[in-house]
């Protein structure tokens, strides 16, 4: 990520998540916790879990820096022999590069502990066997040659859009308003599949929220009436991937930790596992009406903490 992408204010991001909630996984009443329990940090409940899954941005790090206390929390969990994993919607970087960045921050995650939404982009495309020409939203360094059929980067030429039989939105780092207008207009005139490798609407990048490809996918869908198809949180493939690696662990002893209600927490609830929402250093940093947000969303987490390592700094 270069930091060139546009920013989005939090209220607009919340409004977008609420507006597009019907495009995300639904929850049955039995999947909702009875209440949200406030805890000091993740160590206060660690003995209840054998596997803990983390979102990265807003939980482990904000931008390039580790969130205060996160390193100490992970170290303590390691000492308790809790299995740890990461689910990320960062589809723009190779898994090895993602892990290396975490190691540079001081975390000791292994490549085997990571599941990225990028893993499911090609299988999603292959489900559209009748589509062979794809226009792709991604920066120029992205390995587009790994995609099936003919694929090219969407740029400023109308032919990039006219000749595509489908669109894959992976990363918004090189995206801009003019390209978005081209995409929407083209789809309105000729609706085609919209596939999304990163369904996030925004991501915390330190002192701002970057606009992610999920946001642009929903705008494009509004223009043409085509339901976007997504991989990554809150959708099931990434959660099933982790759970299948630990078949002997009871799902009730698995915890999903995230900073965003409609990706991390919704995804964990839909997967049938416990959830912890953190409110400092990520999407909800400084937000003062969580109860109101729960009411508007219609769901809430099992636990809430300021940060995974609050008090451990």
Task: Describe the secondary structure blueprint for this structure.
Blueprint: H1 10-19, E1 37-38, E2 51-54, E3 61-62, E4 65-66, H2 70-79, E5 83-88, H3 95-105, E6 114-116, H4 121-126, E7 133-137, E8 150-153, H5 158-162, E9 166-169, H6 177-189, E10 194-196, E11 202-204, E12 209-211, H7 213-224, E13 229-230, H8 236-245, E14 254-258, H9 261-270, E15 274-278, H10 290-297, E16 303-305
Parallel strand pairs: 1-16, 2-5, 2-14, 5-6, 7-8, 7-9, 9-10, 10-13, 14-15, 15-16
Antiparallel strand pairs: 3-4, 11-12
Overview in brief:
The protein has 313 residues and is an alpha/beta fold. Helix content is 30%, strand content 18%.
Mean pLDDT over the residues: 94
CATH architecture assignment name of the largest domain: 3-Layer(aba) Sandwich
Radius of gyration: 19 Å
Q: What is the tally of beta strands?
A: 16
- Derived from helix and strand composition plus strand pairing, the structural class reads alpha/beta
Tell me the series of helices and strands, N- to C-terminal: HEEEEHEHEHEEHEHEEEHEHEHEHE
Kindly state the percentage of residues in helix. 25-40%
What is the strand arrangement across the widest sheet? 1-16-15-14-2-5-6
Query: What is the domain tally?
Result: 2
Main sheet overview:
7 strands, parallel
Report the oligomer. Answer: single chain
Strand content: 15-25%
CATH homologous superfamily assignment of the largest domain: HAD superfamily/HAD-like
The geometry reads as globular
Report how far apart the termini are: 27 Å
Helix count, per DSSP? 10
Level-1 CATH class name of the largest domain = Alpha Beta
| Spans where pLDDT lies below 50 across 5 or more residues | none
The CATH topology of the largest domain corresponds to Rossmann fold
GO molecular function: phosphatase activity
GO cellular component, one term: cytoplasm
InterPro entries: HAD-like_sf, HAD-SF_hydro_IIA, HAD_sf
Organism: Thalassospira profundimaris
